[in-house]
Design goal:
Radius of gyration: 21 Å
Pfam families: Y_phosphatase
GO molecular function, one term: protein tyrosine phosphatase activity
InterPro entries: Protein-Tyr_Phosphatase, PTP_cat, Tyr_Pase_cat, Tyr_Pase_dom
Distance between the termini: 34 Å
Strand order of the largest sheet: 3-4-5-11-6-10-9-8-7
Strand content: 15-25%
Structural class: alpha/beta
Protein name: Protein tyrosine phosphatase
Number of strands: 11
Helix content: 25-40%
Organism: Cotesia typhae
Shape: globular
Number of helices: 6
């Protein structure tokens, strides 16, 4: 390579690095502006028991309300999230990590008749090491009147697996649920490869469309959860919403999408690296698809 061509190449690389740095700084400032917007957080209300941390707060207007009885509370740390022109497309919650939370989680799945669950933290990342389903095929977890049987585990991708679960109610029939376990987001402070995460999003989208077709267009919420129910889960929703809007030939603004999400899930996407990942993953989607 000639000296002149080397100089041109060095200049292009330097320009690219400068552009990337400027974009990064812009997005960090944009994220700061989002965090400083108190409009959404002003109406947050804790409806749980005790004195929870910030992550335990839910907005009253869109929290999931369990069908109550005299023996249990109707509260669960879970929020309905809208997609583009589809209200309550998702339910975002934290990974259940106690027996009481597991019972409430499956009660919610049953009452919402949700047929898709997306889990974005590894099972061994649960603080108390509790699993809310059985990993082995033909094994059953018993939750009050609900029995959760693992029917089949499919390894269709190196970094996630799909488990078919049969939920049987002692008095009210049964429900088949597909459980997507993503295993490539090991650290809450890191982000996964964009193309890899898009594979998961597209797999869930494809599977969800198939189920809706079989059920004559009936749309139950996709339950999305992670260790805190605030960052990774919201990244999934933000990217899925952006893809939906793009396919509907509508202008896509990650900033606007996240602004709306923060009005539905208290203090969500506070991790700036995850916010930037929403942009980079969606850009990668535009390049790939």
């Amino acid at each position: 390579m000639s000296a002149n061509k080397e100089k041109i190449l060095d200049c292009e690389i330097s320009t690219s690095i400068i552009d990337e740095k400027l974009i990064n700084e812009f997005l960090r400032q944009e994220h700061t502006n989002l965090m400083n917007n108190m409009e959404a957080s002003a109406s947050a209300k804790n409806l749980g028991n005790g004195e929870p941390e910030t992550g335990e707060l839910c907005f009253d207007h869109n929290r999931v309300i369990l069908k109550g009885d005299k023996e249990s509370s109707d509260y669960i740390n879970a929020s309905y999230i809208d997609n583009f022109k589809q209200p309550k497309a998702y339910i975002v919650t934290k990974t259940p990590d106690s027996e009481a939370e597991i019972h409430k989680f499956w009660k919610m799945v049953w009452e919402q008749q949700s047929e898709k669950i997306v889990m974005l933290n590894k099972p061994d990342q649960n603080e108390k090491g509790v699993l809310y389903w059985k990993l082995e095929e033909r094994a059953t977890l018993y939750c009050g009147k609900l029995n959760v049987e693992t029917i089949k585990v499919r390894h269709l991708h190196p970094n996630f697996e799909i488990t078919t679960l049969l939920i049987t109610h002692e008095d009210q029939g049964s429900l088949l649920v597909d459980h997507f376990l993503y295993k490539n987001w090991s650290n809450i402070d890191s982000v996964p490869p964009g193309a890899d995460f898009l594979d998961l999003v597209n797999m869930v989208r494809t599977d969800n469309k198939y189920v809706q077709k079989l059920s004559n267009g009936c749309k139950s919420p996709v339950i999305v959860h992670c260790s805190d129910g605030l960052n990774r889960s919201i990244v999934f929703c933000a990217i899925d919403i952006a893809i939906t809007k793009d396919q509907k030939v509508v202008d896509v603004s990650i900033f606007s999408i996240v602004t709306q999400l923060r009005k539905q899930r208290y203090n969500c996407l506070y991790n700036v690296n995850h916010y930037i990942f929403c942009y980079s993953a969606f850009c990668e989607y535009l390049n790939l698809y």
